[in-house]
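Figure 3 (text version): structure tokens given as input.
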């Protein structure tokens, strides 16, 4: 048997131990900042949010339509892709800035419009608006947000604000909202086009999600240890949707369900153009034909989206649609994407495959529920770091350098449009690029 020499040992000195005793300083941090400081991913923030938020509001954010197949497949589309990194590039400096609709953004993503935001956390849209302003990215206010247009604008003056419009059955009210948004400096109109009716969102029904939140024995027990959430709810102003008008009695307010106009067609873009002088974006494009038709109609942007999987279940994952749409209309219309995005790597992949910009929804709502405004700041820190790291490891230093060659899409399902076999790579078509533009 071989003889192995023993370790040479010595008595440790205080200077040897000192490096191991360095503690993270939490001095000066608020309680919310301490709560989210150890979150390193959006999924970490989601876990904190689930502990702190009653089931109704949490599952309103977390859930989708019917069997939630669309939502799951949208996430799988990002999980299944492969990156193709280049090596031996100087990536000591990485620039994440880009332009979208003619104006700069410090990051290749922004915060998309979401409904009922104050139900997630009492500070609601103003808290998100301030975080977006600090990050230098745009943020969209929803027609069914829970903050007025004026209060939203006042929360982050000088920041870039978009306004999302559900076309209401009451066209006069729609026109008044558009005029109000323009008067308060909103620069872009996002028209949601995938919500002719409300999707069958089973989690909302199962968890008793309503507006305003209702106390039943079940919801009371669920919320009994979420004292801060209920305290915030009961000690702040009652919720009002963005589309509600202050002089209209509460008893006469239109219900959320059924208040939109189900008869809207492409012909309605004409009066929208007359009412809004800035860029118009159609959100909810789910086929190549509709993307082409939107581009032919002259809109400045489209968002490939299936509403986060909350409308038609089994709808195509937007990421799978992206390469074909970008190749076909990307030169004339800015192509954006949402749904399924959880990481900065997802954002980078979407940009490489042809998106000009990416909109986040659930990601910042989880953060808001987890830690309020501090949580949203933490989400931006996480995503910014992930974007930078992914770009550097791909060997690129600017958004303009990202291209389809950096990503390979993999489908675990057969596809009618291109009929690949399961687990067969879907080649991303090359995208024409204008020199010096993105």
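Below: residues designed for each position.
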């Amino acid at each position: 048997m071989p003889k192995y020499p023993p370790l040479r040992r010595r008595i440790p000195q205080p200077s040897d131990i000192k490096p191991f005793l360095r503690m993270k300083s939490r001095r000066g941090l608020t309680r919310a900042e301490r709560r989210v400081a150890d979150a390193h991913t959006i999924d970490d923030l989601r876990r904190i949010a689930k502990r702190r938020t009653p089931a109704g509001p949490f599952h309103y954010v977390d859930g989708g339509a019917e069997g939630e197949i669309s939502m799951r497949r949208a996430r799988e589309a990002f999980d299944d892709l492969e990156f193709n990194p280049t090596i031996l590039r100087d990536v000591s400096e990485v620039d994440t800035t880009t332009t979208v609709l003619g104006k700069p953004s410090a990051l290749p993503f922004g915060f998309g419009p979401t409904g009922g935001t104050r139900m997630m956390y009492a500070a609601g849209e103003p808290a998100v608006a301030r975080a977006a302003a600090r990050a230098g990215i745009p943020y969209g206010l929803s027609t069914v947000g829970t903050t007025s247009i004026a209060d939203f604008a006042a929360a982050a003056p000088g920041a870039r604000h978009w306004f999302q419009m559900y076309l209401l059955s009451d066209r006069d009210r729609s026109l008044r909202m558009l005029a109000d948004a323009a008067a308060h400096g909103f620069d872009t109109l996002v028209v949601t086009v995938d919500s002719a009716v409300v999707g069958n969102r089973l989690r909302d029904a199962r968890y008793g999600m309503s507006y305003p939140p209702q106390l039943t024995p079940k919801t009371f027990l669920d919320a009994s240890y979420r004292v801060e959430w209920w305290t915030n709810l009961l000690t702040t102003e009652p919720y009002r949707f963005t589309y509600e008008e202050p002089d209209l009695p509460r008893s006469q307010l239109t219900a959320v369900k059924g208040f939109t106009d189900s008869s809207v067609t492409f012909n309605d873009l004409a009066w929208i153009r007359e009412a809004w002088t800035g860029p118009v974006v159609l959100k909810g494009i789910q086929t190549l034909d509709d993307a082409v038709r939107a581009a032919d109609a002259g809109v400045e942007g489209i968002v490939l989206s299936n509403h986060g999987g909350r409308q038609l279940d089994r709808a195509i994952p937007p990421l799978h649609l992206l390469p074909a749409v970008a190749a076909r209309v990307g030169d004339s219309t800015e192509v954006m994407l949402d749904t399924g995005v959880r990481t900065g790597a997802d954002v980078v992949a979407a940009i490489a495959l042809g998106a000009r910009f990416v909109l986040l929804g659930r990601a910042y709502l989880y953060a808001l529920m987890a830690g309020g405004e501090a949580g949203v700041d933490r989400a931006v820190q996480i995503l910014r770091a992930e974007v930078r790291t992914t770009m550097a490891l791909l060997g690129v230093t600017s958004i303009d350098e990202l291209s389809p060659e950096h990503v390979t899409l993999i489908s675990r399902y057969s596809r009618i449009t291109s009929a690949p076999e399961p687990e067969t790579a879907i080649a991303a078509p090359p995208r024409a690029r204008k020199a010096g533009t993105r």
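The first strand starts at residue 82 and ends at 83.
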